[in-house]
Amino acid sequence: MPEEGHSLPYVANLSILFKEVPLLERAAAARDAGFTDVEYWWPFDSAVPARDEVDAFVKSLDGVRLRGLNFYAGDMAAGDRGLVSWIGREAEFADSLVVALGIAERTGCRSFNALYGNRLDGEDPAKQDDLARVHLDQAADAAARIGAQLVLEPLSGADRYPLKTAADAVAVLDDLGRDNVRLLADLYHLAVNSDDLDALATRHIARIGHVQIADAPGRHQPGTGSLDIDGHLAKLQNAGYAGFVGIEYVPEPDTGTSLAWLPKTRRGRA
């Protein structure tokens, strides 16, 4: 590792980057920009997409490696943030798990983001947490069969979403007790929620399964806000994190221009 900065590899999140082209063209655009590895939120409109939709998505990944995929999270644009704890939508969660595992078998993807879900009006939070435990257990069993992990992500900008800090997510992990369910540390969300980012390296490093970045405030590319992204990533690498860093920012003014901070030599991994 260089004396300054870090040498962690980057993975492009194509649900938020390269939106200048349709979703099925983004992997090719990322590849042309030098990326070898990509990740997505749920790339379909429903928990159970048509077979030809799945086939088209998998085919679009030619030339890049799929490193991460979200489970179906509901209508994100309308404010939904996952089905893991959503009482009444158990079938959709189970169906999207099957679809995601099928994609993983075809692509080699071995990391799944299980968004926890918002608190629901009229529902007992304890019952939601009980359902989340069942769903995470089931998904962890299924993921373990193919050597995969789940990651649990604290979020900002979603008042009804109960996981806001790294400690919130780690408490769920401790209760669950599964080795292949880990923390997704998104530096942007944690910073916006005033979490202690230094604690990621000093207290939570053994629990981290994935890292994502965007600058804060604004959620744009590094250098547009005040967050010491490079410094925090260096601390994580020095503490033992050796995984990918997901680029999950809103590019400004466009994806190509926004990537000026990242040399092409840092956009791939052999």
Automatic annotation (TrEMBL):
SUPFAM superfamilies listed in its UniProt record: Xylose isomerase-like
Keyword Isomerase belongs to the record: yes
The UniProt record lists the keyword Isomerase: yes
Signal peptide positions (record): none
Positions of the Xylose isomerase-like TIM barrel domain: 28-264
Keywords: Isomerase
Pfam name, any one: AP_endonuc_2
GO terms assigned for molecular function: isomerase activity
Stated family: Belongs to the hyi family.
PANTHER family in the record: HYDROXYPYRUVATE ISOMERASE-RELATED (PTHR43489:SF6), ISOMERASE (PTHR43489)
Protein name: Hydroxypyruvate isomerase
Lineage: Bacteria, Bacillati, Actinomycetota, Actinomycetes, Pseudonocardiales
Gene name per UniProt: gip
